[in-house]
Amino acid sequence: MVKHLKKFEQVIVGVLAILMALVVLLSTGELAWILVKDMITPPLFILEINELLEILGLFLLVLMGIELLETMTAYLAEGVIHVEVVTTVAMIALTRKVIVLEAKDYPGLTLLGIGVIIIALAATYYLVRRPKT
Questions:
Q1: Angle formed by the axes of helices 49-78 and 2-40, nearest 10°
Q2: Domain ranges of the chain
Q3: Which of 53, 73, 102 is nearest to 13 (CA)?
């Protein structure tokens, strides 16, 4: 029974990996389309702040997709989830949130909470990456 469940789990993760690869491909295409569209709209080759924020947000979404895909393929190959990769995805997601965040729309306590999350993720990443003694 456990053997069948493990096989089922591998099939599901494989399907998810294929779907994530499709999402990354489509996201990259959308990012390229938006970048080209914004660059050829007058004034040529000049991007406004809101366009830059949209492009950076999409770029970070593609990076998150790539990192999640790496997590899934590592899980398929080794059967373990790498904490470093998951932490990296969380850091990219939080970076994206901070970049597109309109600080004036959020109360101070929410911004303080985001700051605490940033510190916690940085500490986690440091602890995971530090040399083992």
A1: 160
A2: 2-129
A3: 73
For residue 65, which amino acid is it?
Answer: G
Specify the pTM.
0.78
Question: Please, what's the b/e burial string for 37-62 (b: 16 or more CB within 10 A of its CB; e: otherwise)?
Answer: ebeeeeeeeeeeeebeebbeebbbbb
Which letter does DSSP use for residue 131 in this model? P
**Averaged pLDDT of the chain:** 90
Q: Are 114 and 96 spatial neighbours (Cβ–Cβ below 8 Å)? A: no
DSSP class per residue in 42-104: SSTT---HHHHHHHHHHHHHHHHHHHHHHHHHHHHHHS---HHHHHHHHHHHHHHHHHH--GG
69 within 8 A of 21, measured Cβ to Cβ:
yes
**DSSP secondary-structure letter at 2?**
H
Beta carbons of 71 and 89 less than 8 angstroms apart: yes
Per-residue model confidence (pLDDT) at position 71: 87
